[in-house]
Amino acid sequence: MNKEFYQENRKTLYENVEKNSLIILFSGHAPKRSNDENYEFYANRNFLYLTNVEQENTALMTAVYEDTEEEYLYILPPDKMAERWTGRRLKPVEIEGLSGIQNTRYVDTFLNYLGIYLRARGIETVYLDFDKLDSEEADTESYRLARYIQKEFPYVQMKNLQEQLRAQRTIKKPCEIEALRKAEEITGEAIVAMMKASKAGMYEYQYKAEFDYVLAQHGVLMSGFPSIISAGDNNFCIHYYDYRGQAKDGDMILNDVGARWNHEINDVSRGWPCNGKFSDKQKLLYQCAYNTSEYMFSILKPGIPMQDVDRMIREYCYEELRKAGVCESYDEIGTYMWHGGAHHIGFDVHDVVSRNIKTAPGMVFCVDVGIYHEEWGIGFRLEDNCLITEDGCENLSAAIPRTIEEIEEIMNQE
Ligand SMILES: [Mn+2]
Q1: pLDDT in tens, 3-20
Q2: How far is the CA of 181 from the centre of ligand 1 (A)?
Q3: φ and ψ at residue 413, rounded to 5 degrees
Q4: How far is the CA of 239 from the centre of ligand 1 (A)?
């Protein structure tokens, strides 16, 4: 996405906060892994959504007044020795190109300017991104800064940016949909590569290597999220990351994968028999998932409460399984369906969106139908990405082979 997208995101935010306030967000930093090694840096997604800047120890601080804003990005200062080891740092002109932010200061002046705003520039409210999901999580910069503000400037009130940013991120803009389409294309090519390479005896890590290879050929150096790729009984672990299992003849392969394009992440699951030929039982279960998915894409449109989407997937799939003779009563559905299937995607793979919402044009969420039959040793999920349109919906991942016929044909091509 170009810088206008990020400028617009900030403008909407500034319009929706109280005047005489400061908005502060941090890019974050890479946590320590061991000794002198850190994990790979992964920018805070709210910060990224507003700035397009992926650099550690960087902060956005904007003063919002009645008729003007003072917007500054606090960036790492040039440091020849540090840059020799860890790479060059973004210059103000590059920051402007990425984000449209015209003013920068060095991050070591951040607290000084914060003090000036809070003592002498009429700021009454500070907005921070309080994003902890539970109190066990480690404090981020926002929480540490909040304690500092409370101690040094007890007359300033603090508010949480979460609800406003969730609301903005709920509806995707056309350029975000375009980025997701590109992510779907790459993911599709990578899934097809796994299908084509598939054979009995293949290890999960070999499937993963096929997937990662295609992504890397497109310049996607990190998958959208840790890929879940498994075979046989390992499919019964929902979040499986071991990759060391081997597909036995007749096993199903499960994968739950995605790419990232322009910061947008897609999330698709496909399942197939490793040997390229669905058994009767595999066909039976797969058809139930497929029919459920097709039904959902035929009825989804604006105005449906999100919590009903999960329930409808479950109820329809139950009917399919009952007709197929797999279960007799709805009480048993938990034996075969282990998880819900309708989370939003976007800058996060489980995107942060407003709570208790109804479907609306521009929302993109997964329709995920997972069936797990332990007795038969068959587990897989069929997960696609649904874009809600003005009068219905579109399956963004429809081109990735998903019928039994399509999958068998791809797998058995010479
Ligand atoms: Mn998924």
Answers
A1: 999 999 999 999 999 999
A2: 16
A3: -70, 145
A4: 10
Q: How confident is the model at residue 340 (pLDDT cuts 50, 70, 90)?
A: confident
pLDDT of 356 reads 92
CA angle 32, 38, 41 (to 5 degrees): 110
pLDDT at 341: 79
350 alpha carbon to ligand 1 midpoint, in Å?
9
pLDDT given at position 127 = 98
Longest dimension (CA), the chain: 75
82-131 pLDDT tens trace: 999 989 999 999 999 999 999 999 999 999 999 999 999 999 999 999 99
**Burial per residue of 64-75, b for 16 or more beta-carbon CB atoms within 10 angstroms, e otherwise:** beeeeeebbbbb
Q: How far is the CA of 389 from the centre of ligand 1 (A)?
A: 22
Mean pLDDT over each residue of the chain, to the nearest integer: 97
Quote the ligand 1 centre to 4 CA distance (angstroms): 30
CA of 256 from ligand 1 middle (Å) equals 5
Measured in residues, the chain has a length of 414
Question: Is 414 a residue whose pLDDT tops 80?
Answer: no
Centre of ligand 1 to C-alpha 339, Å, is 11
> What does the DSSP 8-state code read for residue 68?
-
Q: What is the pLDDT of residue 351?
A: 96
Fold classification of 3-168 (topology level): Creatine Amidinohydrolase; Chain A, domain 1 (3.40.350)
- What is 171-411's CATH topology? Creatine Amidinohydrolase (3.90.230)
How far apart are the CA of 267 and the centre of ligand 1, in A? 5
The answer, yes or no, to whether residue 227 has pLDDT greater than 90, is yes
Separation of first and last alpha carbons in the chain:
39
Residues 276, 281, 283, 289, CA torsion sign:
negative
Beta bridge partners of 159: 127
* CB of 205 closer than 8 Å to CB of 244: yes
> What average pLDDT does range 133-158 have in this prediction?
95
Q: How far is CA 118 from the centre of its chain?
A: 35
Query: In whole angstroms, what separates CA 174 from the centre of its chain?
Result: 17
DSSP H or E stretch at residue 316: helix 306-323
Outline which parts of the chain fall under CATH 3.90.230.10: 171-411
Residues of the chain with CATH 3.40.350.10: 3-168
Distance 289 CA to ligand 1 centre (A): 15
Residue type, 45: R
